[in-house]
Design goal:
Strand content: under 5%
Radius of gyration: 23 Å
CATH topology: Na+/H+ antiporter like fold
Largest sheet: 2 strands, antiparallel
Shape: globular
């Protein structure tokens, strides 16, 4: 806002010294805000810290005398109209389907970069984290269905399959330099693959009745983006405008509109063919990482983590089974699945453990991956939208299981790092 103020003041005639002082003050404020954001983002654990803080505040609020005010606030409707048409949804829906599209956009940009230039480009290197991520998704689903098959909570199988990337990376950063760099890369790549699976599950299994006509309009918008890129006429402003239209089309189709971020991220150009300020993907990521980290994710946590914890949370049989399934999937399923997936590809000689990495490290990271949080809550909202008792049970179990997984994971990784031999600079 301060930057916009400066641009406006440049066009104001007269004012002399006063205009100069206001412009100088605005520039100072803009610089201070920019430096503060950069300083915050230098902390690898900042996203997890802010997310945890927002969740704790939400839980305290939801279990205090302010509970009714908290619930009523997020159920207020907010409308955006364009001429005679528009979209009217609750504030919570705008966050879950609107702002979370920006979160998914950042994730999909990271996924695309990993596929094109990163670890996922070399199949032997990628085989280890990919297999680990697949195992880390399938085993939690299996354990959840083992408990809930044939019961009301069976549709929530996607809740324990996800990993909160920001939280996991942030937790690993708490151990500092004692964590080998290859272990960080393994975890990052595995969580990226995990995100692909979670996003696919959301798009395919957790949507409402689909309306074909708006979906066809959305496909037309996507085709326009790809054609404009092919003929070298795609600009960032055009990309953003068409992205808004795509969001509206997908929202009207009944598919979770947050998936728009994934589609846009995978279609954003990673390279530029002419003299510009940079590729669209890079410019988007630079602009959206602070927004996603410092605004979108905390808002999502504050809006969705406010679950009332009471004695009757698990009193019904279906609620108890849902809670047990989520807890088993996140705590035991994630660790067992990731370890088993990695072990299989190593034994089959399709890949190998990176230098300086022991099986204890893999096990510790497996437990850390049991921190589901953001995407687990998101899928729970979709799966149990019309079953508030099961939704509450799932959320409470996500919180408890994430806490247990984080503690066990940090302990195991720290012990493994102490037992490991020092890594030479060449190996690093």
């Amino acid at each position: 806002m301060a930057g916009i103020l400066v641009l406006l003041l440049k066009n104001i005639q007269g004012g002399g010294l006063l205009k100069h002082r206001i412009r100088k003050s605005a520039l100072v404020i803009t610089t201070q805000v920019s430096n503060t954001i950069k300083l915050l983002l230098q902390d690898e654990a900042i996203s997890g810290k802010i997310l945890l803080g927002a969740a704790i505040i939400a839980i305290i609020t939801a279990n205090s005398p302010l509970r009714d005010i908290y619930d009523a606030f997020w159920l207020r409707h907010f409308s955006i109209a364009f001429g005679g048409t528009g979209v009217s949804e609750t504030l919570k829906h705008w966050i879950n389907e609107g702002l979370m599209a920006l979160f998914f956009l950042v994730i999909s940009l990271e996924i695309k970069r990993e596929i094109v230039w990163g670890e996922l480009r070399h199949w032997r290197v990628a085989a280890l984290p990919v297999a680990a991520a697949i195992g880390g998704a399938l085993v939690p689903i299996g354990l959840y269905m083992l408990v809930n098959h044939g019961h009301a909570g069976a549709h929530g199988w996607g809740v324990p399959m996800t990993t909160d990337t920001a939280f996991c990376i942030g937790l690993l950063a708490l151990l500092g330099k004692r964590v080998p760099l290859p272990l960080k890369l393994f975890l990052l790549t595995a969580t990226v693959v995990d995100d692909v699976g979670a996003i696919t599950a959301i798009a395919v299994f957790y949507n409402h009745a689909v309306h074909i006509v708006p979906l066809l309009w959305g496909m037309g918008v996507l085709a326009t983006i790809l054609i404009l890129h092919w003929i070298r006429l795609l600009r960032l402003t055009t990309f953003v405008a068409l992205g808004v239209v795509l969001w509206l089309a997908i929202h009207a189709s009944g598919v979770p509109a947050s998936i728009t971020g994934v589609i846009l991220g995978l279609s954003a150009p990673l390279m530029t063919r002419r003299k510009t300020k940079g590729a669209i993907a890079n410019r988007l990521e630079r602009a959206l990482i602070p927004v996603s980290t410092l605004l979108v994710v905390p808002l999502f946590a504050f809006a969705n983590a406010g679950v009332s914890i009471s004695r009757d949370t698990f009193t019904t049989n279906d609620a108890a089974l849902t809670g047990v399934g989520v807890a088993m999937g996140l705590v035991a399923g994630k660790a067992l699945g990731i370890f088993t997936g990695a072990w299989i590809v190593v034994k089959m000689r399709l890949s190998s453990l990176p230098a300086g990495i022991r099986w204890g490290h893999i096990g510790g990271v497996g437990f850390l991956s049991g921190v589901g949080f953001t995407l687990s809550i998101f899928i729970a909202e979709l799966a149990f939208e019309e079953q508030p008792i099961l939704l509450r049970a799932a959320k409470v179990s996500v919180f408890a299981a994430s806490l247990v997984s984080a503690v066990i994971g940090l302990i195991v990784v720290r012990i493994s790092c102490r037992r490991s031999e020092p890594i030479t600079p060449d190996e690093d």
